[in-house]
Amino acid sequence: MPAPTESIRTRESGPTDPAPEPDLRHHGDAEVRGADAGLTDLAVNVRTGTPPAWLKDRIAASLDGLAAYPDGRAARHAVAARHGLPAGRVLLTSGAAEAFVLIARALPARRPVVVHPQFTEPEAALRDAGHDVGRVLLDERDGFRLDPDAVPRDADLVVVGNPTNPTSVLHPAEVLARLARPGRTLVVDEAFMDAVPGERESLAARTDLPGLVVLRSLTKTWGLAGLRIGYVLAAEDTVAALERAQPLWPVSSPALAAAEACCAAGALAEAAAAAEEIAADRAHLLGRLGEFGQIRVAGPAAGPFVLIRLPGAAEVRTGLRERGFAVRRGDTFPGLGPDWLRLAVRDRATTDRFAAALAEVLARL
């Protein structure tokens, strides 16, 4: 059985019936599998039109070397150079999800705490490793913003996303830095940070904060969910502890080739341009959502997705599926409920088609 959880709200709330425990293993890709693969995908936060042709070519070229065991040195140095860090502070992983498992299994923690609503895999990994997990539940009335004082002082492992999935809130770097202290591991999941123009508020290059562990993913911007490549940035002793918990050769040669390619100057420039385009497309989506008086948008949004609240969200989600659109349910995220949906940012034409379908659905409720 999973370890129990303890919830700490940022505001006092009145007595309520206990909500059912969210399904921590539900992910957006469940909305577009099998017979649903033809739906317009607003449920998964991977950038459309990816991976680009040049990246496919780099990955394909690596196949000639599949007879050899993977050698991650070049990719590790490329990631380190991309963030201005020594290679000893970098660990390549089979996606960011592997990093959550390594952290849960390899790093000591008496009182781990996860800040919610956020990506559920960190808590699932901690519970699978036998930890009792505390939850700090951020409040919609505060715009899901983080108050560092809401995190218990005795929490010795704290996990927070930035920008946070699913709220799309970007926490100021200095607010997150206030969570760092000796004797505590502070895990900041920056899987979507490269979709933020200028990567403002990133802690990736910081080496002055005790216990800081930053996670990155190449999945979202580059369309590599099926390849599995991410990385950890942390102090060398932390990297060494995590690496000891990894199986041998955890990252394939094609994934290593992708990591090295995505850290090149041209790729970084392309990612920066994509982040600006996403910001413009998100503004268009927010404008269209503003046409519906019954919809509330969390935010301000900074990621390649937005979180909305509206009555009858489950029925709306079903109606949208009938009209060819898949959106992400929100009730599987701790701290949210059945009135929440997450929408991936897409191009303006797709957003306009979605808005028309949404208008039809809402008119029939």
Biggest sheet details: 8 strands, mixed
Fraction of residues in helix: 25-40%
**Radius of gyration, CA atoms, in whole angstroms:** 20 Å
Strand content: 15-25%
Strand arrangement across the biggest beta sheet = 1-5-4-6-7-8-9-3
Taken from the alpha-carbon principal axes, the silhouette is: globular
Low-confidence stretches: 11-17
Overall mean pLDDT stands at 95
Ends apart, CA distance between termini: 40 Å
| Count of helical regions | 11
Oligomer: single chain
What is the ordering of alpha helices and beta strands?
EEHHEHEHEEHEEHEHHHEEHEEH
Got a strand count? Answer: 13
Written description of the protein model:
- The chain is α/β, with parallel strands linked by helices.
- About 35% of the residues lie in helices and about 15% in strands.
- The protein is built from eleven helices and 13 strands.
- The strands form two sheets. The protein has an eight-stranded mixed sheet with strand order 1-5-4-6-7-8-9-3.
- The longest helix is centred in the last third of the chain and has 25 residues, at about 265-290.
- The protein is globular and about 55 Å long.
- The model is unreliable at about 10-15 (pLDDT under 50).
